[in-house]
Amino acid sequence: MEKLFETEAEEASSSSQDHKRWIEAQDMLRRRLITKDDFAWKLPKTTSSEKEEELEEVEVLRYVGGVDVSFSKEDPSVACGTLVVLNIQNLQVVYEDFAIVTIAVPYVPGFLAFREAPILLELLQRIQKKDASPFYPQLLMVDGNGILHPRGFGLACHLGVLADLPTIGIGKNLHHVDGLTYSRVRQLLEAKENSTRDFITLTGCSGHTWGAAMRSTQDSLKPIFISVGHRVSLYTAIIIVKMACKYRVPEPIRQVEGIPAEASKGSVRMMQLHGSGWFTYLSLLQQIYFQKHKAVEGMRSENIREVHSCYKQARKVQ
Fold it and tell me: How far, in Å, CA of 14 to CA of 118, rounded?
């Protein structure tokens, strides 16, 4: 019995230490977050005259990715990470891929990214190594939240900082932060003064703007929740999401959600994750840590690996 109590105490202590490490790592990444437009490309134009002018532009937004991680109903430790890339100008899929893995990292509210980001980073790394690299996304839509998050740093932020990509968080459910509630948002959307508007900004009790609730189509009864991920302003994020919507959910997210079902039928080529996703993840975090602590010598690798020791064995090939 004493040994049982000792084991439970050790597990509780280990869980507490892991939680502190997650907070430290998340805070480290948050300091690199950019919430304004920070990209070289231009938004596609709509009129023919504007399209002619685009020929003289250096780069126009063309390839928008969508990423998602879904979990097996039979075994919650089995996950399928998916990536699609669409041409934003015609909403056609030009690339898709996925990875099926088992996950040992527990779900902890506020720290979902530590389970999912390594899988998605692996998928982004793979596209760079393929002949499909011309389709590498210029921007990512993430099935999850950006700054509209209990700790102000959701999966879209986490992934954007690590991949150094502009990202937008697309939430189907509202995080109740800073006094924001779903019922209140619905009331605002249905109010007479907002009847002709397709979105409202989400401003909390503190006065901070967390994102926007948007009616993607006229017939949509449920809003989606848009938030800044990384290197994109909320204003630009709303414009891009509108461009990508045929139905309630923007096409990059709608398309990416269909892949796990196809994968289960064997209609899509299988891809295995050989652990390199975690090496990529740790390597990126290590680079960020080095930049933050340039004056510290000799302890860099040890420190960053201590922060992430609870993740190193978290992925196994399914």
Answer: 22
**How many CB atoms lie under 10 A from the CB of residue 163?**
21
As a whole number of angstroms, the distance between CA 173 and CA 187 comes to 16
Mean pLDDT computed over 270-297: 50
What is d(CA 104, CA 213) in angstroms, rounded to the nearest whole number? 34
Q: In angstroms, rounded to a whole number, what is the distance separating the alpha carbons of residues 79 and 120?
A: 11
> Does 286 score more than 60 pLDDT?
no
- Please give the Cα distance from 238 to 228 (Å, whole number): 9
Rounded to two decimals, the pTM is 0.81
Nearest to 153 by CA among 215, 264, 227: 227
DSSP string, the chain: -HHHHHHHHHHHHHHHHHHHHHHHHHHHHHTT---S---S-BPPP-SHHHHHHHTTSS-B--EEEEEEEEE-SS-TTEEEEEEEEEETTTTEEEEEEEEEEEE-SPP-TT-THHHHHHHHHHHHHHHHHSTTGGG--SEEEEEB-SSSSTTS--HHHHHHHHHT--EEEEESS----TT--HHHHHHHHHSGGGTT-SEEEEE-TTS-EEEEEE--STT--S-EEEEEEES--HHHHHHHHHHT-SSSS-HHHHHHTTHHHHHHTT-S------SHHHHHHHHHHHHHHHHHTTT--S-HHHHHHHHTTTTTT-EEE-
Q: What is the dihedral of CA 36, 213, 160, 140, to 10 degrees?
A: -110
pLDDT tens per residue across span 5-31: 444 444 445 567 778 888 999 999 999
Closest CA to 158 of 250, 69, 254: 69
Q: Are 67 and 170 in contact (CB under 8 A)?
A: no
Q: Are 179 and 204 in contact (CB under 8 A)?
A: yes
